[in-house]
Design a protein that fits this description.
Layout (H helix, E strand, L loop, with lengths): L7 E3 L2 E3 L3 E3 L21 E7 L12 E4 L2 E4 L8 H12 L6 E5 L4 H10 L7 E5 L3 E2 L5 E2 L4 H14 L4 E4 L7 H10 L4 E4 L3 E4 L1 E2 L4 E2 L5 E5 L4 H12 L6 E4 L5 H10 L3 E4 L2 H4 L3 H15 L16
Parallel strand pairs: 3-4, 3-18, 4-7, 7-8, 8-11, 11-12, 12-17, 17-18
Antiparallel strand pairs: 1-2, 5-6, 6-16, 9-10, 13-16, 14-15
The protein binds flavin mononucleotide.
The site of flavin mononucleotide (FMN) has 25 residues, from β4.
Length: 305
Amino acid sequence: MDNSRLETNLAGIQMASPVMTASGTFGYGEEFEGFVDLSLLGGVMVKGTTLLPRRGNDGARMAETPAGMLNSIGLENPGVEYFLSDILPRIKKYRMNVIVNISGSSVSEYGELAKRLDVDGVAAIELNVSCPNVKDGGIIFGTDEKSAAAVVREAKRNTHKPVVLKLSPNVTDIVAIAKAVEAAGADALSLINTLMGMAIDIKTWRPVLGNVTGGLSGPCVKPVALRMVWQVANAVGIPVIGMGGIETAEDAIEFFLAGASAVAIGTANFRDPAATMKIIRGIDDYLKKRNLSNIKELVGKMKIE
Ligand SMILES: Cc1cc2nc3c(=O)[nH]c(=O)nc-3n(C[C@H](O)[C@H](O)[C@H](O)COP(=O)(O)O)c2cc1C
């Protein structure tokens, strides 16, 4: 495949294609080696990483919903030191952009994580600000303009890598938060994270998920994600990575037209571990058929008269 139509550069990261994988849905990339040519991906946003290892939540962590799923994993991961000493050296060989998704329980923890990850083999840092801010009494960094901006500033102070802020859809005005984090120095934005949801077992009257609530993802969230990508891309000057329910090349093309410079595939990887490859080929076919020389010719080109 001639890749030139798909090649792009996002916030200084050179990408073989604008198709990435969403954090928490593709492990560290290596698990998919048998299904995917990892070097064709724009990047792999690896599993959410924290300063210390985390066991994650007890009880059921996943529930199927019509056209999607709920999850409440609780950020299970082996911690940043293990990632650096064991995982990163192993996955370097795949020639893929490794974007490390990080979560902290305080602003300074984000800074500490960014500093430790400022190493060879890490292409960028993605800040997951949808986790509880323990120090400030349970607010979520991503739902407050000032806290989200503070997290970005702290990360930027501690790393030379591009910093991507992942926006939460569980807010009233996503554009206000996007503008605040752009002003704080974010190099790119990714959206959306999961939408808060829940399910109840009517036989037992108990919540289906051990954590009661969880994050909704998959095709059911796509219209919401697309709307938010369009709103945010029109309001900021930094590139946007669109995600939320993308399963096909056609879905991805909608996100490009809405203003996303790249897309990330999440839940679809569970249904079809080779989904990203089909999406990449489908986008390339679409560009070829329309005589377009590069993906950039689609970005933000939705027509409204
Ligand atoms: C099982 C699972 C685990 C996830 N873990 C993370 C995570 O650790 N950090 C994060 O920022 N987003 C996490 N997400 C959110 C996804 O990266 C993505 O933003 C969301 O699922 C929407 O995309 P999708 O509908 O294509 O899955 C997770 C999603 C799922 C389904």
